[in-house]
């Protein structure tokens, strides 16, 4: 299937630098950093690090101070093999923090969930974006996003976190992910969600082996060609550990920064990371170099 230009736009077309979210518009004219706030006991790199609301609010304030543009709040780990967490449990984890953040920080909050129930409650509590790693698999999710006017991250995955690694088989990973993300984009548009509210994510590590994640990061221009800004989430993921001889997730900070910079130079505009300060420095410097290059890329 030919998915080039689903929106009939060249990558630089007017409007592609803007992301409409609930209550405003974010410009991706500069690289945007989405700081990760995992309120989970079992996330692959930082599970259990933020045991109470105060610890979470402190971490959030620190990330804002370090230059985060968005905060992504999640109550469910989606690491390979993880089981789904019931909506009520996700809400118990995230709502007090979103409510606390809503009056305390000036940057938008996204909610990392596959559940429409969780998304609706989170947006009511102050979230402005739904980050759905399952790309609208919950039949109610498109309605929630349309009705609340939230921004939407559509991420590529096959199956569920519990099953996805058995489906990491591709002949041409870049073309297949572009086609499948294009299908998700069309589904969202058909459900009445405006293109201006959507960003696209190749789903690094989701139904991907290390070679697939590398190929996708190297081939991001193809995804940018779908006509919406591209977000990447390489932070601390296993492909970095594989390259570096098995270093543990918390020691993958420099590798994460390298992946973000490489992704920026291939067309990504949003970066989901655990460690905001190094990503901020690296991306601002890389962006300045990119803009100075003779062809601006
Ligand atoms: N990765 C994770 C979770 N959510 N969302 C988007 N849009 N893109 C990603 O790559 C992405 C994501 C997994 O990372 P993490 O939150 O650190 O781990 P866990 O799922 O174990 O909580």
Structure write-up:
- The protein has 297 residues and is of the alpha/beta class.
- Helix content is 39%, strand content 14%.
- The protein is built from 10 helices and 10 strands.
- The chain has an 8-stranded parallel beta sheet with strand order 8-7-6-5-4-3-10-9. A two-stranded antiparallel sheet has the order 1-2.
- Helix 1 (53-65) crosses helix 2 (87-102), helix 2 runs parallel beside helix 3 (116-125) and helix 3 (116-125) runs parallel beside helix 4.
- The model is unreliable at 1-14 (pLDDT under 50).
Q: Care to give the gist of this entry?
A:
The chain is α/β, with parallel strands linked by helices and 297 residues long. The protein is built from 10 helices and 10 strands.
For the secondary structure, the number of strands is: 10
Query: Which regions have little confidence, pLDDT < 50, spanning 5+ residues?
Result: 1-14
- Please work out how many helical segments DSSP would assign: 10
Strand order of the largest sheet: 8-7-6-5-4-3-10-9
Rg, Cα atoms, Å: 17 Å
Q: What is the strand content? A: 5-15%
């Amino acid at each position: 299937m030919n998915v080039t230009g689903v929106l009939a736009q060249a990558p630089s077309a007017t409007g592609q630098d803007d992301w409409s979210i609930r209550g405003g518009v974010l410009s991706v004219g500069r690289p945007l950093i989405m700081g990760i706030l995992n309120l989970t006991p079992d996330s692959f790199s930082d599970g259990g690090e933020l045991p109470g609301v105060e610890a979470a609010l402190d971490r959030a304030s620190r990330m804002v101070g370090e230059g985060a543009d968005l905060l992504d709040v999640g109550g469910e780990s989606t690491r390979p093999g993880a089981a789904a967490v019931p909506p009520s449990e996700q809400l118990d984890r995230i709502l007090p923090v979103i409510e606390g953040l809503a009056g305390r920080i000036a940057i938008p909050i996204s909610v990392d969930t596959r559940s429409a129930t969780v998304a609706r409650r989170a947006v009511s509590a102050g979230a402005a974006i739904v980050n759905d790693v399952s790309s609208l698999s919950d039949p109610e999710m498109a309605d929630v996003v349309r009705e609340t006017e939230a921004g939407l991250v559509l991420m590529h995955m096959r199956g569920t976190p519990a099953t996805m690694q058995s489906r990491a088989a591709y002949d041409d990973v870049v073309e297949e992910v572009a086609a499948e993300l294009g299908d998700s984009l069309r589904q969202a548009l058909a459900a009445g969600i405006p293109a201006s509210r959507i960003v696209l994510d190749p789903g690094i590590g989701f139904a991907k082996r290390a070679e697939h994640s590398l190929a996708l990061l190297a081939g991001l221009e193809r995804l940018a060609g779908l006509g919406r800004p591209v977000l990447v989430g390489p932070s601390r993921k296993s492909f970095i550990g594989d390259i570096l001889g098995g270093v543990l997730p918390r020691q993958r900070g420099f590798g994460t920064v390298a992946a973000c910079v490489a992704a920026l130079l291939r067309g990504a505009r949003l970066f989901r990371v655990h460690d905001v300060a190094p990503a901020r420095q690296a991306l601002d410097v890389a962006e300045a170099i990119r803009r100075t290059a003779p062809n601006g890329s």
